[in-house]
């Protein structure tokens, strides 16, 4: 099938990236989370987590990326990159191929779960004359850039449903929207937690375009079915049946007794893990709406929680982060003691210290 080639290219990308060196030791480890596009949900989740770290006087740098695959590989090999947000089907894809492909097995070595997050909706914005997922056959469809989770999910879904496209175009959603509106493509995939800014912040013509319902039985057996409520976006008045994938916060298995870089990174991972656990209610109230559906107990099958995460969420853990210094109090005139009170203070100081 024509759409099987993207999956083969994706495996080559994974294997080729494994040869890159892991970060060397460092005296101090700045903290970074790789997220996604500026219009996506991942970057907003990253900013929420940065807000937690700033409560402790530290920054978590939020870095844009192509998406899940780049994020996974960045956690494994990019210096000072302790966290990345990844789609669960990317993890399942790697687990499936790791037994037969030593390159993929090396790619996943050392990468661990920090926290399971939320379900992401599979958005497919298409022309109105395309009625459902099956209607994508022989159409020109943007499936995301090659390092993205959108690319992998779109490729897998098309393969599972047996759909052949006229063209599978590696175009990012932000670039695909104007091409759809110009009639240059027929639809585009975007995996993002609703509400996604690309649909909320653009004036999309409801008479020309709609979100495709995804009711294919095979896809609903592999992915979690869900309903996007009507009115989630201005152009989408009615509920839409679709499927979802889970977003997961990933980290690396740092050695708390290893070199300086590993020790510093492990402390950072432990500190942020402690903050997430103790501030989960605040995140649900004040962060991106997707925090409200986070189930911290829903660990993806076949993956382990990082030791530094477990250290941070242990009830006896003492955080290494330093709270911001309080504002210096305004100097006030010292009270004037009477001679009697001054004598009292001298006696107390002599007996117990001041």
Automatic annotation (TrEMBL):
Keywords: Signal. The keyword Transferase does not apply. Residues 1-26 form the signal peptide. Transmembrane segments: none annotated. The keyword Repeat does not apply. It comes from the Bacteria. It holds the Pfam family NMT1_3. NCBIfam families: TRAP_TAXI. This is TAXI family TRAP transporter solute-binding subunit.
């Amino acid at each position: 099938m024509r759409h099987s080639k993207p999956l083969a290219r994706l495996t080559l990308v994974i294997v080729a990236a494994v040869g890159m060196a892991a970060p060397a030791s460092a005296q101090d480890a700045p903290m970074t989370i790789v997220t996604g596009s500026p219009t996506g949900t991942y970057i907003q989740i990253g900013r929420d987590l940065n807000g937690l770290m700033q409560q402790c006087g530290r920054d978590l740098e939020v870095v844009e990326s192509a998406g899940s695959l780049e994020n996974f590989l960045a956690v494994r090999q990019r210096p000072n990159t302790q966290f990345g947000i990844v789609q669960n089907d990317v993890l399942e894809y790697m687990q499936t191929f790791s037994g037969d492909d030593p390159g993929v097995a090396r790619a996943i070595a050392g990468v661990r779960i920090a926290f399971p997050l939320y379900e992401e909706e599979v958005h497919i914005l298409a022309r109105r004359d395309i009625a459902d997922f099956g209607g994508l056959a022989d159409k020109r469809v943007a499936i995301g850039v090659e390092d993205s989770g959108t690319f992998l999910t779109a490729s897998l879904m098309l393969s599972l449903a047996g759909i052949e496209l006229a063209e599978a175009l590696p175009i990012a959603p932000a670039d695909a929207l104007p091409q759809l509106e110009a009639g240059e493509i027929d639809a585009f995939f975007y995996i993002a937690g609703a509400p996604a800014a690309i649909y909320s912040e653009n004036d999309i013509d409801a008479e020309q375009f709609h979100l495709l319902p995804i009711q294919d039985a095979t896809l609903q057996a592999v992915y979690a079915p869900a309903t996007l409520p009507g009115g989630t976006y201005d152009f989408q008045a009615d509920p839409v049946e679709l499927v979802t994938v889970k977003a997961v916060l990933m980290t690396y298995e740092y050695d708390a007794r290893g070199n300086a870089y590993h020790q510093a990174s492990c402390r950072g991972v432990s500190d942020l893990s402690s903050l997430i656990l103790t501030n989960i209610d605040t995140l649900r109230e004040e962060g991106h709406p997707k925090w409200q559906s986070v189930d911290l107990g829903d660990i993806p099958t076949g993956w382990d929680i990082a030791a530094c995460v477990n250290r941070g969420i242990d009830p006896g853990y003492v955080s290494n982060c330093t709270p911001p210094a309080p504002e210096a109090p305004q100097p006030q005139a010292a009270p004037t003691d009477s001679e009697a009170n001054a004598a009292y203070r001298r006696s107390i100081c002599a007996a117990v210290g001041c």
